[in-house]
Amino acid sequence: MSASAVRVVEREFGELALNMGPQHPSTHGVLRIVLHLSGETVVRAVPSIGYLHRGVEKLAEHLAYDQLAPVFERDDYLAPTANSHAFVLAAEALGKIEAPRRGRWIRALVAEWQRIASHLVWLGTLGLDLGGALGGGTTLYMYCFREREKILDLMESLTGTRFHTNVNMIGGARYDLDAETAARSSALAAEIEAALPSLAALSGGTPIFRERTRGVGVIPKDLAMGIGVTGPTLRGSGIRFDVRRAAPYDAYDELPFEIPIRAAGDAEARFQVRMDEIVQSLGIVRRIVEGLPAGPIFSRKPLKNPKATKLPAGEAYVAVESPRGELGFHIVSDGGAKPYRLKISAPSFRNLQVVPHLLPGGLVADVVAILGSLDPVMGDVDR
Amino acid sequence: MPAPEIVEALRVRFGAEPAPLGVSLPAASLLAAMRALRDTYGYRSYVTATALERDGRFEVAHAVRDVEMNDTLFVRVRVQRDGAEIDSLAFVYAGAEWHEREILDLFGIAFRGHPDPRRILLPDEYVGHPLRKDFAIETPWGYRP
User: Fold this and answer.
1) How does residue A137 score in pLDDT terms, banded at 50, 70 and 90?
2) Do A49 and B47 touch (CB under 8 A)?
3) A54-350 adopts what CATH topology?
4) Can you list the pairs that B28-31 forms with residues at least 24 positions away whose Cβ atoms lie under 8 Å?
5) Residue A380 CB: number of other CB atoms within 10 A?
């Protein structure tokens, strides 16, 4: 919407048009929302995205398959491996490449640790969003980041990098899990499990937090399905759908875990779903380390020339459950060494689309609570 | 893939043909077929939309899902590259609105009856549609990945 159109709205209808973002701390990056306000109440919200658009889908048409996985790790920068995970699974489906069992389990292990790390960032920033009511906000943030830091340290000892781990390769995993790192993983799982009650007490346990989130930003079931929201946002609206169960990949068909859901559909429900998911993920990483099968981690010959890998012509759509929801890769191959067309179906893009339906009728203060409960990552939205 | 009787019903009612990951429809029957999929066949959940350019034509695929049956169906439409126009699904599935804007932005395919046909990722004044095959990736100083 152009600046002149905004001024006209203000003059004609007595509404104030307020630009929230793109440099606003509670928008978690570079999201801009044009809020039309009548007093303190939002009457209309127009999100504006694209500030972080890097054109990876076009870039993907110009790079070889084996060069691409690290590129996609830069998309969703709070859970980098989820992106490359979905990509390598789609490429494996296209090329009928079987990854060895141990490699698949290690990929699932890293994915689950990053889910926990991503949820901890979300919880900490939600505390910041809701602000002074929660012990100055920064208290919860610091406790969450202290726990997340330990996960990043574990990732460093497993893969050599803290964050963009590059663990996923077409055909398996790049790094093996040694006994020492396995022991550290189990110890860390116990440590974080012990820290969770205090994190929950600092957030959901306080009456102010409940006041700010209960009944705020309710997504009814029909709207959730029609928009196509996904991940914890969908499960917070009472729909039991998780890609790890619906279309199991890697180790998830062999691991028992539960899919937490809540029926309320409000910000508090999404908060509770994510908190329960952390507990489930801790159980999964424990089971993976206990039952990790022996054998090779990579099934293809060592790569000398990454541009030599060709995948047969065809189409594949494979999704993973990233911390934010269903992250799908649709690859069309013409039989060459590069994708003919590659589409990333990003969960944050799908979740953010519900914002214009949620904000009207609420207060400005609810905007940050709702955005925080949706957990969008702008790198994932804009790709 | 959906149950065989749904594929058969789509073929008889809307002229659907089998295609990778789902079915392919004549462009004229897209809107009616998607309404039927949503209301009659249980595909109430919207997943994503994608497009591609192949052999001088555009293909647009909408993915919809039946959560109870755990089935995802890609419904695809082919149109001529020049002056391409496809019926918008924004009033059938609310989630199609942004995905269609993305395709409009990156491919330049127009959607008939779209409530808000603006660019979504690129700036409004941007010239060209990057995901078309004739859009060069080279920079003026000669860089290419």
Assistant:
1) low
2) no
3) Cytochrome-c3 Hydrogenase; chain B (1.10.645)
4) B30/B75, B30/B77, B30/B86, B30/B87, B30/B89, B31/B87, B31/B89, B31/B92
5) 28
ipTM of the complex: 0.88
Domain boundaries, chain B: 4-85
Cα separation, B51 vs A148, in Å, equals 38
Residue B35, amino acid: R
pLDDT per residue, tens digit, chain B (145 aa), is: 677 778 888 888 888 888 888 888 888 888 889 998 888 888 889 999 999 888 888 999 999 998 888 888 899 998 888 877 899 998 999 889 999 999 999 998 989 889 988 889 998 888 888 888 888 777 777 666 6
Nearest neighbour of B130 by CB, restricted to A58, A227, A345: A58
The H or E element spanning position A344 is strand A341-345
**Given an 8 Å threshold on Cβ–Cβ distance, is B122 in contact with A50?**
yes
CATH of B4-85, one of 1.20.1330.10, 1.25.10.10, 3.40.470.10, 3.30.460.80: 3.30.460.80
Residue pLDDT, tens place only, A192-235: 999 899 888 888 778 888 888 888 889 998 899 889 899 899 99
Q: CB distance B45–A226 less than 8 Å?
A: yes
pTM for this model (two decimals): 0.88
Q: Which of A59, A228, A357 sits opposite B47 (nearest CB)?
A: A228
- B26: which DSSP letter? -
d(CA A257, CA A118): 19
